[in-house]
Specification:
The protein is an alpha/beta fold and 137 residues long. 24% of the residues lie in helices and 18% in strands. The relative contact order is 0.09.
């Protein structure tokens, strides 16, 4: 467990900011790597404690859906609700028809629709504009 003062010190080493709002505005400039790689692996004085509980690395949509108590978060319906997962952070409803084994995530920044087993590929596509088709309406 890290103290907040330590986290803020490390954050200042990675990015120059004056307050929370300034950090929030500059957050997108940070390198997209895990906390483990960015911070933990560089520590010279660290203590590791054994954890005896159940563990699941929910770093993919496939793993996240396996831990979800419900198939729908937000406004969503499907004709195959046992094989469809929707996380909708928008006010617009999502209707999934004729699809199975998919995950849908909708936020103000974008929408992802993926076969659950292929969802690990999202990381390789994110941020590489040449692999996306841009539609201007």
């Amino acid at each position: 467990m890290f103290k907040l003062s330590y986290i803020l010190k490390r954050a200042h080493e990675l990015i120059d900011f004056s307050d929370y709002y300034d950090l929030f505005q500059k957050y997108h400039t940070l390198e997209r790597i895990s906390f483990d790689y960015a911070v933990v692996e560089h520590e010279k004085d660290i203590l590791v404690k054994r954890y005896n509980g159940a563990w699941s690395d929910i770093g993919t949509w496939d793993a996240l859906t396996a831990t979800m108590d419900t198939h729908f978060v937000g406004k969503a319906v499907s004709d195959h609700p046992e094989n469809v997962f929707v996380i909708n952070e928008t006010e617009k409803p999502i209707i999934v028809l004729g699809l199975e084994n998919v995950v849908v995530s909708a936020t103000d920044s974008g929408i992802i629709v993926s076969d659950i087993q292929a969802s690990h590929k999202i990381k390789t596509l994110r941020g590489s504009g040449e692999k996306f088709v841009r539609l201007d309406f």
